[in-house]
Amino acid sequence: MHSSKMRRKVVPASTDNGDSADKQDQLLVSAAICNGEDLGPFVRKAFASGKPETLLHHLRHFSRSKESEIEDVCRAHYQDFIMAVDDLRSLLSDVDSLKSSLSISNSQLQSVALPLLTSLDSFVEARNKCKNITLAIESLRTCAQLVELCSRANFHLSNNNFYMALKCVDSIEREFLKKMPSSTLRRMLEKQIPEIRAHIERKVSKEFGDWLVEIRIVSRNLGQLAIGQASAARQREEELRIKQREAEEQSRLSLRDCVYALEEEDDEGLDGFCENNREGYGNGGAGALGFDLMPLYRAHHIHQTLGLEDRFRQYYFENRKLQLTSDFQVSSMTPFLESHQTFLAQIAGFFIVEDRVLRTGGGLISKMEVENLWDTAVSKMCSVLEDQFSRMQTANHLLLIKDYVSLLGVTLRRYGYPTDALLDVLSKHRDKYHELLLSDCRKQIAEALAADKLEQMYMKKEYEYSMNVLSFQLQTSNLMPAFPYVAPFSSTVPDCCRIVRSFIEDSVSFMSYGGQLEFYDVVKKYLDRLLAEVLDGALLKIINTSVNGVTQAMQMAANMAVFERACDFFFRHAAQLSGIPLRMAERGRKQFPLTKARDAAEEMLSGLLKHKVDGFLTLIENVNWMADETPQGGNEYANEVIIFLETLVSTAQQILPVEVLKRVLQDVLCHISEMIVGALLGESVKRFNVNAIMGLDVDIRMLESFAENQATLLSDADANQLKTALVESRQLINLLLSNHPENFLNPVIRERSYNALDYRKVVAISEKLRDQSDRLFGSFGTRGAKQNTKKKSLDALIKRLKDVN
């Protein structure tokens, strides 16, 4: 054997410079051989130099040096080799002794074991017979068990207990088919087992098909029930809100004798459907509703047992998808208003069933598949709703469908289905709904106004007062009036209030449950349009076309004042229904939306009253403008006007609010003042004297006294404001009666005492007083000097004013 250790590399010893080259080559060859290096270079060198004998000599020298080393090694190991040979000879002697001993033992064993071997052969033969008998018994027992299982399988099949029958068949196939000793029975089993499985599959598939037909009807009823329960829950919420609003209203009116009670609500949702524990097959629903999933679960379980679960899952999904597609069909023969509940309830019931199957079906349908079905359903419902909404021209119809769609959304959100897309469709048609609602209200308001005779309402019973006054918070006092009660407004007010209140409730109903939590601003926007465009426009049209006479004009003005209180109620009512605090609604209030109609009504009343007053003011022509003395009791026209105004106030204060009456009286008094100034300025009066002016002063004092007397009805400040309506005629008379009329030229005095006068009118009227004969002032007697001074002052005033002009 070769040693595994690497040989040490021999390095040639360095030589002195005096050694010969031959000696050096010999050392190099020896070192190369010791190191196991290639001798090719040495050979090539030797032949190249033509001295191969030298190389051969070196090799022989190396061989002789190594032979001596071998001899040394052999001498060192010779003794060990001799000892090993001696041990081997001793071992051969022991082997011969062992061979003799084994031969003797074998002979003894053969003589002893011969009887035993004979007995063993007899035992083996008996044991083989026993095994054959045992095998026969086992075969009989196996056949007996097989027959029993076959009998049990037939029994389960006859009782339609397919799962247990399949278990029996599987047990036969697993435990008996391969080890069946009878080939006849084996062939029979191999033929019958597939047929039994096919028979069970056909039976279960038929039951499942019947269930698919039945579940469509069940789904519709289930959807209607679910949506009905959502509607009942919403109704309970509305009733609770109504009670809350009533409590807030009582609190606002400081009615502390309120009765509070706790109410228990019975939450009868669809979650109350009993979910039976699935042991074998679960019912999975409420038996009273026919919501029975047992045929489905049974079919699924049987197909699982048959190893056909994936095929059945696909078959179930495809059939349900086809049913959903069929449910999307909308009949063109039936109006959607009549069929929308059935259409939506069918879809709702479908997904309620699918949710139950998803949660209890053991993987029969996946969440992703249900979501895909729902996305398809939402897309189709949105398309149908878009199409149907675009055709509708009645707000009430659109509201009915919207309510049912929102109930559908509430119902299915409880099962985890997203309904934002449906709510978006409703939001898109918000403007159209309100436009239709405004159109309906415009017709109703026009009919209500056309039917009104502009007469005060007469209420005999308390319920009439409650229905027409309290329900709209039109009362000015919390005390119940005596009956019969004559209201200060006509039937227009409660009729229009009912229309507006209905508009608010319909608008809130449309906006509620539509996914938008804060919708008061939207309701308020359309309410502003209803009041400012529809109601205000209709009232304005009636005022301009149908109001005849002071009585009707006064009634219309009274109605407008009541409408102002009603508008406060409208915005409060909208805020309450929208669920926001009243203080927020009050903060966002604008000015009275019926301003145009109110101003037109007051202007109409003022115009008719002015026309009446003009009839009395025609008597101003009977005034003696060159009277010799001042009339003591005032002129005739003034007395007639005062009588008319007092009669007007006594009548108007019964129905007109104080502010409206003040504005009307102020307008009439201002008109009277203008007419008095106009009479002095007119062509019919050529000249007048101081006595005539003093007579006018008495007339104006009577009118001012009338205004002051209204302080009992109005406030003192309002009475003083009424007097300011006569300011032009009062300042003119004061100027004409002044001893220093030239003070009119003083800016300070003019601003303080004559700021209502137009200097052009002053010039024209003063010239008429100036254009008198000297006899004009003869009646002043001893005051001639003062008259002359006054005349000079007046002449100077006229001259200066003409220069300015």
UniProtKB/TrEMBL annotation:
<feature type="domain" description="Exocyst complex component EXOC6/Sec15 N-terminal">
    <location>
        <begin position="58"/>
        <end position="227"/>
    </location>
</feature>
<dbReference type="GO" id="GO:0000145">
    <property type="term" value="C:exocyst"/>
</dbReference>
<protein>
    <recommendedName>
        <fullName>Exocyst complex component</fullName>
    </recommendedName>
</protein>
<feature type="domain" description="Exocyst complex subunit EXOC6/Sec15 C-terminal">
    <location>
        <begin position="422"/>
        <end position="768"/>
    </location>
</feature>
<dbReference type="GO" id="GO:0016020">
    <property type="term" value="C:membrane"/>
</dbReference>
<dbReference type="GO" id="GO:0060321">
    <property type="term" value="P:acceptance of pollen"/>
</dbReference>
<dbReference type="InterPro" id="IPR042044">
    <property type="entry name" value="EXOC6PINT-1/Sec15/Tip20_C_dom2"/>
</dbReference>
<dbReference type="GO" id="GO:0009860">
    <property type="term" value="P:pollen tube growth"/>
</dbReference>
<dbReference type="InterPro" id="IPR042045">
    <property type="entry name" value="EXOC6/Sec15_C_dom1"/>
</dbReference>
<dbReference type="InterPro" id="IPR046361">
    <property type="entry name" value="EXOC6/Sec15_C"/>
</dbReference>
<dbReference type="Pfam" id="PF04091">
    <property type="entry name" value="Sec15_C"/>
</dbReference>
<dbReference type="GO" id="GO:0090522">
    <property type="term" value="P:vesicle tethering involved in exocytosis"/>
</dbReference>
<keyword id="KW-0813">Transport</keyword>
<feature type="region of interest" description="Disordered">
    <location>
        <begin position="1"/>
        <end position="21"/>
    </location>
</feature>
<dbReference type="GO" id="GO:0006886">
    <property type="term" value="P:intracellular protein transport"/>
</dbReference>
<comment type="function">
    <text>Component of the exocyst complex involved in the docking of exocytic vesicles with fusion sites on the plasma membrane during regulated or polarized secretion. Involved in polarized cell growth and organ morphogenesis. During cytokinesis, involved in cell plate initiation, cell plate maturation and formation of new primary cell wall.</text>
</comment>
<dbReference type="InterPro" id="IPR007225">
    <property type="entry name" value="EXOC6/Sec15"/>
</dbReference>
<keyword id="KW-0963">Cytoplasm</keyword>
<dbReference type="Pfam" id="PF20651">
    <property type="entry name" value="EXOC6_Sec15_N"/>
</dbReference>
<dbReference type="GO" id="GO:0009846">
    <property type="term" value="P:pollen germination"/>
</dbReference>
<comment type="similarity">
    <text>Belongs to the SEC15 family.</text>
</comment>
<dbReference type="GO" id="GO:0006893">
    <property type="term" value="P:Golgi to plasma membrane transport"/>
</dbReference>
<keyword id="KW-0268">Exocytosis</keyword>
<dbReference type="GO" id="GO:0005829">
    <property type="term" value="C:cytosol"/>
</dbReference>
<dbReference type="InterPro" id="IPR048359">
    <property type="entry name" value="EXOC6_Sec15_N"/>
</dbReference>
<feature type="compositionally biased region" description="Basic residues">
    <location>
        <begin position="1"/>
        <end position="10"/>
    </location>
</feature>
